[in-house]
Amino acid sequence: MTLRTTTRRSTLAAGAAAFAGLAMPAVLRAQPAGIKLGLIHPVTGPLAFSGNQCRIGGQMAIKDVNEAGGIKAMGGAKLEALLGDAQLKPELAASLVDQFAEAGAAGFTGCYASSLGLAATQAAAKYELPFSIDSGVADSLTSRGLANTFRLFPSASVCVNGAVDELEGLNKQAGGPVKTAVLVHENSEFGTTTANTLKEKLPGIGIKVLDVMAHATPTRDFTNVVLRIKEQKPDLVIISDYLNEYVLLIRTMVQQRVPSGIFSVFGGGFSLKFAKEQNEISEGVLDFNNWWNTKAPETAAFRKRLDAAGVATTYEVFFGYYAVKLLADAFERAGSADKKKVIPALAASTFYPDMLPYNPTKFANGQNEGAQGVGLQVQHADVKVVWPEKFADAKAVFPRAKG
Amino acid sequence: MLRYWPILAVVAALLPFASSSQFLVNLAMLTAFSALLGQGWNIACGFGGLTSFGHAVFFGIGAYAVAIMQTRFGINPWLGLPAAAILGAAAGAVLGAAAFRAGLRGSYFALVTLAFAEVFRILANSLDITKGGLGILIPLHPSLPNFQFADRRGAYALVLVLLAVAMGIAAWLRRSRFGARLVAVRENEDAAAALGIPLVRTKTQALALSGAVTATAGVLYAQMFLYVDPNIAFGAERSVEMLLVAMIGGAGTVWGPVLGAIVLHLIQDTARMLIDTPGFAPMLYGAILLAIIAFLPNGIAGLRLPRRRSAREEVRRA
């Protein structure tokens, strides 16, 4: 009897031990290895603000993915950020890719500036690691045939073509008041490309380009530029500038009472802050730029989160956010962080960024063909989307009321 | 033991070849690259006492030369290396002849070099051949004949070879008559002129030599990162990097730029890797630089341990 009892207990104990033994790997499996992502941005130096905005967006996406249970197809694997400051040095961006690749990064996002992106994507290509570009607009980022590089967001040429379409549409709707334009642009890659394309395309929509004025960044006095504009009396002044020069140029135009409409493409200073805090000069200014979908229900909640965290709402946060989400979606669909599976998953991705005003996602040579910019206008100290109609939350006042 | 330190330095430079870590190789490569830039500046400014704040002009000429030659004319980038050296030397000769004939020296010459680099930056921003502000993107075709390296060890090896050549030039300057004339000019121009040293010719030759070395660094940069724009090529930051490396390490010495590059990269990269707070690493870097400049006015190479006197010296002193 004693023996039988002992045997049963022994059996139960052995069974419990066996169960525990079998269960242990399951417990271990419940804590899969994290997936490291390299987030490379210029967070110090002249582009620090925008670079930081991208980084904040990326960190928010990582937090959201992890709080929603991680990458479920990989047993709930959590994303981990490896943060890198590339300043404004391409060689540093490439070096960070090396550093993170050896730390086990499964992919990268970055780098805000195209010059950094060109060096970093190329460095990542040597490891065949996926790179999700957040905010670089140079066409060459995705036109070099790098199989590892993907951009969910629009390229410069897509945005400039969109701006020309918008101008043509608005001008037709208003009865063709704009017949002449002067282009003012900063003289680095972004401003030069934009101005060159506009100069080529504007005559095709019936707008004669009277002058093209390039200036350096930084420029701290636009009096001469504005006097030249005033002399030529264009119907429209089209600007492509970074933040400080953008605001200063418009301020000088208003002070000098230039009676032309103001339109910008990638207006660096065009923001909610510009609309609210500088309304005496910003009211009525039109811009074609990256923005968010103001009609999407998720957008309001996201903006509240940003407000609560004291983060300015700019498109860079959205781009940083979705650059990470695009990779997370690819990990999920590939069921792996293996680059050989993730890159094909990205190429076939139809991941749609709900809070951005895009058409359905379709990648061709790493570029999302559904991405686009939108037409914006400052109206009543707020920024309104005025083009295309599908995403517009206000009607454009075109051209700007003459002062 | 100290007499063997150049051998130790060479061994340390070769160690990354044994490493499979591309990151470590890249760090070593960027350090050697900084040393090469510093040595380019050191040849004219360390040995000759010229004050150049615009050496980026030679770097940019080299970078643009190789980029334009291969993207516009289809010329093999290896040929860009000697071509860039010739162009860099020519630019140095033109700048030197113009400035020194006008009797410019000291801070006036420094301002001219700064302006020269700025003029080239504006030209690169405006001309079609440099593609203006767009910059030039060199197509990615990694292969040795194409002067592109899939493995960073290849690029590192080339940087080391060019650094060795530049250091050879610096060592030759220390021993040659030309080098002696250059040092005489640096120490006292009037005295050198009184001794019959042709000031304009000597300084112009030094600037041409320096321009050639710095331009080859530009070629390397273009081939490593495959993108050149006016700010990358002619930006003031590059000029500052060159003079900092040489001055921190010890201007007018053969090993100074190497020591400077090692120390600067150690500070910069360690701070960057260990401290995540944005802006903290550059701040720390700046503070340490200030300390080095304040306490080591002759650079790290000026910090010499007491040497054991030889028997002959002891006898002489006695």
Overall 3D shape of chain B:
globular
What coarse outline of chain A follows from CA principal-axis ratios? elongated
Say what oligomer this is.
heterodimer
* Total beta strand runs of chain B: 2
Order of strands, main sheet of chain B, comes to 1-2
Placed side by side, the strands forming the largest sheet of chain A appear as 7-6-8-9-10-13-14
How many domains comprise the coordinates of chain A?
2
Low-confidence runs of chain A = 1-6, 17-29
Estimate what percentage of residues of chain B fall within beta strands: under 5%
Spatial extent as radius of gyration of chain A: 26 Å
* Structure summary, number of beta strands of chain A: 14
The run of helices and strands of chain A is HEHEHEHEHEHEHEHEHEHHEHHHEEEE
What's the alpha carbon Rg of chain B, rounded to whole Å? 20 Å
Largest sheet of chain B: 2 strands, antiparallel
Total individual domains of chain B? 1
Beta-strand portion of chain A reads 15-25%
What CATH architecture label of the largest domain in chain A applies? Answer: 3-Layer(aba) Sandwich
Tally of separate helices of chain B = 14
Structural class of chain A: alpha/beta
Secondary-structure element string of chain B: HHHHHEHHHHEHHHHH
How would you explain this protein's 3D organization?
The complex is a heterodimer of chains A (403) and B (318). Chain A is of the alpha/beta class and 403 residues long. In chain A, 46% of the residues lie in helices and 18% in strands. Chain A has two domains: 198 residues, Response regulator (Rossmann fold); 150 residues, 3-Layer(aba) Sandwich (Rossmann fold). Chain A has 14 helices and 14 strands. In chain A, the strands form three sheets. In chain A, strands 7-6-8-9-10-13-14 form a seven-stranded mixed sheet, sandwiched between helices. Chain A has a five-stranded parallel sheet with strand order 2-1-3-4-5, with helices on both faces. In chain A, strands 11-12 form a two-stranded antiparallel ribbon. In chain A, a hairpin with a 2-residue loop joins strand 13 and strand 14. Chain B is mainly α. Helix content of chain B is 71%, strand content 1%. Chain B is built from 14 helices and two strands. In chain B, helix 3 packs parallel to helix 5, helix 4 packs antiparallel against helix 9 and helix 7 packs across helix 9.
